[in-house]
Specification:
Length: 277
Amino acid sequence: MVTYQDAATAPLKNTGQIRLYDEEAFAGMRKACNLTARCLDELASRVTPGTTTDSIDRFVFEFGMDHGAIPATLNYRGYTKSTCTSINHVVCHGIPDHKPLREGDVVNIDVTYILDGWHGDSSRMYPVGKIKRASERLLEVTYESLLRGIAAVEPGARTGAIGAAIQVYAEGERCSVVRDFCGHGVGRLFHDAPNILHYGNSHEGVEMRPGMIFTIEPMINLGRPHVKILSDGWTAVTRDRSLSAQYEHTVGVTETGCEIFTLSPAGLDCPGLPQAS
Ligand code: MF3
Ligand code: CO
Ligand code: CO
């Protein structure tokens, strides 16, 4: 039976169909994604030894509220926080808590704001104080992996080209690619078709077309790729407890390549790394 409610929300269900968005939608995504990027910019100076991830979560909530946006993770599938904070060997979906960050930690902060119905999804790594050279190298390799994936976005190519570019580069740097989580279509919905794998072959996946909008968010490990989920039902960690990093951008496919919606207006896409201004 199709109820009135089903009919009303039909355009907002993940049907597996890949949506193509128009220029008005691109304008909406630019705004939502820019707000997310500005929040991540603000966090660069706030992530210091002694900062709790709860206080980061509070900042993300309040910054959103101050700008008319709601964090998409709030009450999403039972998740109750405004952001995910994934420290060291935590791969993704770390839950903010009262524990202070410590000098030498690296933490991923993942923010998705809903602004005027559009979802802006992005994450960055933040070094806490001075970090080891090995940690810094993983952050550099991971952001470069994301950039290589983005460079593979082109109408006519398949989404597998993104994963292939990431895997070839990351494994060539003696790192591994997490298989258990992927990028995703995003727009009116938080998680939509298509899935964007961060490994694989360029002839796999669906053909990219102008108007598609999705995230690329590789998780790269210094050790083996395998993960497990802790008993809280969310926190994903590396099985070998090796260091893990992730950066995420939301992109829209254009006639010639793609537009990165979540670029930092302040040039802080890799906070704390030497090449970042
Ligand atoms: N922001 C994450 C992503 O990049 C999803 C977090 S869902 C949560 O897709 F429930 F764990 F918050
Ligand atoms: Co995402
Ligand atoms: Co995200």
